[in-house]
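User: Batch of two.

Assistant: Item 1 of 2:
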Amino acid sequence: MFDLKGKVAIVTGGNGGIGLGMARGLAGAGARVVVAARNQTKSAAAVRELEKLGGQPLAIAVDVADEASVNALVRSTVDRCGRLDILVNNAGTNVRKQPQDYTLAEWHQVLDTNLTSAFLCSRAAFAPMKAAGGGKIINIGSMMSIFGVSFSPAYGPSKGGLVQLTKSLATAWAKDNIQVNAVLPGWIDTELTQGARRQVPDLHENVLRRTPAGRWGTMEDMAGVAVFLASAASDFVTGTAIPVDGGYSVLG
């Protein structure tokens, strides 16, 4: 039920953080993982790590906010791997400022990287997934799809929009046996959130106090939900958003 042998997965931003954690899970379940990111040095290191889990991983450079680059990523994946079964839209960024201090360029940077990229990648993946008889798309939202914070006026809307995009794609493509779901990570210990801890006073203490599990999440915590949503175990699950947050969102 959770076996991904013979499946091919693209993970955008798969060379670190949540993306690499999910890539590890997919590779461990037997999938051939394509690490899609801009930093080729980091991607090469990620491929070397994933090789230890098997599945012949590879890296393809991409700018997820560029339509031509995204289309080339999917074409290259199908040309080199023969198919595309799983897409993890994980690439993301944040600019932490108060709303009045945001520039329009910063707004577009966050929205294009977090939301538009997921649309572009999903649209490009549709044809090869349909040709394969179905597929799985996993969009990485955030608990800020649920809550608002003062220092992320673009990140929150981008992630909230990603949940709505998930529902739209799930509805449109259910007839093609393509399931589309979102994962809403809580406070996961990554390079991105380490930056947040440096910028936001008392964030570490507040996260520990608010999270019922009493800890930050790890990359390893993201592997299981990725395998579930990428496998036959979730064939009747679509259009949903699953928090992976140690109970943070339960407290409302």
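Item 2 of 2:
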Amino acid sequence: MDSVQVETIASLNLEIAPIDSLTTVLSSQSPSSSRFPKNAIRTSLKASTLDAIFATIFSITTGGILLSKFLVELDASPVVFGMLSSIPMLVNLIQPLGAYISERTTSRFQYSMLVYGISRLLWLILVIGIIGAGWGVINSSQLVILTLFIVFFSHLCGGLGSASWMSWLAIIVPRRLRGRYFGIRNSATSLTNLLSVPLAGFAVSHWYGGTLKGYGVVLFVGILFGLVSLGCQYFKIDVNPQLQNTYIVDASVSSKNELGEISDSVSISQNQAGKGLAMLNPYNIGKNSNFWIFILYFSLWMLAFNLCAPFVNLYLLETLNIDVGWVTIYSSLQAGANLLMVVLWGKLADKVGNRPILIFVGIIVAVTPLLWFGIGNSNLDVWLWLPLLYIFIGGTGTAVDLCNNNMQIGITPVRNQSIYFAIAAAIAGVTGALGTTIGGFIAQSPHFGGLLGLFALSSICRLAALIPLIFVKEQGRGDR
């Protein structure tokens, strides 16, 4: 992975003038003082990057290969792995409610601290549960159920803040720098992955008290880093969603910052101040055909991708019986490829657009599951083919993630933006969860060829999901 609101505002005196900053940000301050110097924006972007770095460490310990290994040690079934992956997507149904609630607040920072603070502190219950299992208070089956409950409620709280956080970031980051900035930001998180995953994997597998206790210690450290990441958000320019929605911001930004030198031309027009902030008109969303075509593509892609993605770790750990230490090294190689390629993809997206990259790289990512055929646990596979496969996945997958994010931000209007994000996340979350659920049952069925049959089916569905993308019109491009 990382806010909008509603209220009647009257008698607002807004000074309209060029602003020497990356973008215009509407804060909880009065509109007449809504000028932010270049340094304030730069500080916000740096804080956002640090936030992402520390949050990545938290995510490493509460998901991915470490949580998968934890559940394998508890003898969890493939259905549990399917549920584990479907829960974070299914709870996205709560995002429209979260967007609505966030629209009623006056600070994206305070709202983020509330929902994400609760979300991350909930994992302390699992730490206590692991301690209890060591003392014989609870058994493995109960610990699996406890893990699923914590995953559910943690992501439920996170889902309440997701659209708000994304809208907050969309206001801070200027349109023309999105590819470059998110490329740099993602490369920072990839480097964090590269360094942290093998260290955490080594700590878990070599902990003197056993892997379960080792995971408990690593999880506790991850929670601390998660709380530090929330502290970094204090240094970001706060946004009052009610002011964000009261005005339509049309910013033309030409830039060069550390990222280059900056020169903004921003015009802000008052939108029916006498009426205050109107709630989002569903009819207007319904008329936005470009948005719905993108949603069709994105939801189908999430379904197809998640048919097999959650079961790769299960395939490596259980079917191929590869040591978790090796799998963490492969994950680090994937993060390293991501680190090297993400800035390149970001710059290329700024030049040629996101859609051409998504179509081209999407085809490559679609056929990638077929590459698992023939992979075993021989020395040649462990030392050569698996590392190369993970590097390939890291280099191509980052392009899809980056460009999907950029396109979603680009095709949604500024006003009530978090609600658009929430709708997209909710629909894609349902289809993604459906994909993991279907995948879990197929993985257990011998009639479909097990996990390899599931990988082949996912490849076919990914290619089909790319068809609607051809008709999406990207903002700021000639086909707009």
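Confidence is low (pLDDT under 50) at residues 1-35, 247-280.
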